[in-house]
Fold:
Amino acid sequence: MAGRTIAVIGGGVAGIAAALAAADRGAQVTLYESLPQLGGRAAGADGIDTGRHLVLSCYRDFFRLLRRIGSDRAVELHPLVYHALAGDATRTVEFPGGEGRHPKLASRLLAGSLLPVAQRIPALAALAQTTASAPGEADDGTLAGDGRTRRIRITGGGPVTDAWRRLHWPHALVARFGSPLAAGIGNAPPHAWAAGPFLNALARVLDDPDPRAGWVSGERYGTVISEPARRALIEADVDLRRGEGVRWVERVPGGWRVAGDRAERFDRAICAVQPARLDVLAQVAEARPLLRAAARVSGRTILTARAHVYNLAPRHGPHGEADPPHAFWFAEPHPDGGVLLERVISGLPDENEPDPDEQRRAFQHGARRWFGVEVNHGEISARHYPSATPTLAPGGPRPAIRHGPGLFYASDWCATGLPATLESAARAGFLAGRLAADQSTTNTVYSVSR
Structure:
């Protein structure tokens, strides 16, 4: 039987994974990407964007994708070290990789200076309860959906702050690193984020026997995702349409019509774009629940301020401001020497245009206060990324992969319970590609190789 014809719309991590998974199963795949290069938000000028606004990061399928495109050796996984910036002090919490995390973290809490003596035993008990209470990830069957009854699901759980109270977290533990940690996981203030994904992420970092939890650094632009993915897709006989965006998708008898530079017919379609760009499905009745949900979660922004400095050593892991707006700092090696110092605020509403000068002043103040470096105002680059990242409030909708006969949605909005943007995008992409290439008429879900 000839392979299905499949259109993949979007050439980011989810789209690349979907196209490769479908092509590896004999499908004839066409990948549309409006930009000249592949990678989406994972492609950056100085390295690979690993969803670094997230404090805890556990990568499974993302590294599987890197192995598939032959660039897994181009990244380095560092043990996660988290620095809480509270007042004029910096408190460091280390999450060691590999076996024995509990004993190491226990000794850190008991013998270290992170907590007052009276709070150390209650903190251990609270962490044990947190690990036991993590709700667990959605399995692939749940994420796949059936295209009818599970197209949109509702996440459970309340705000992270409620979880702290329920699990009896000591106030000192919350005050010193709980709130900014929660902000990093949720990409939003902790009171506005469901606790489930945070508990999943924390439990994985504490419990996972494999050393995947850490910070990922990469090489210069093009060496990790964009160029390796291009070569892998060409080798897999994927029809690669870089620089060709999609204007609309519509249902036709027995398949789908996709309008790029010209309208073409496909058996199945995989939409791998951000929620804010789902308007290409406006004519598709099966996608209406997805579009309504996307309208609820879109409209968030990311603010960044960065400077190239030379009198600072690189520091692995994020530095999170304990006070609102819970900005995160990164001091990473610059490819031209020195350090790229960056301040990131995620999950803000798009309602007001930010003031670049205010961002630069905040950057100058923080660089001086916490990193001991003076940065001239003119050397700071401030940027605003509107509608960049959806923020999900408690009980918010999460879409499954399948959205009707032959229609699939794969993005980092899909995989619940996963703590990293790239990880959930890769997982959703691989799953959508397998489902779309399935020749049977059943709802078979191929398990993800771990």
About this structure: Confidence is low (pLDDT under 50) at residues 441-450. Residues 77-133+159-217 form one domain. The longest strand covers residues 76-86. The first helix runs from residue 13 to 23.
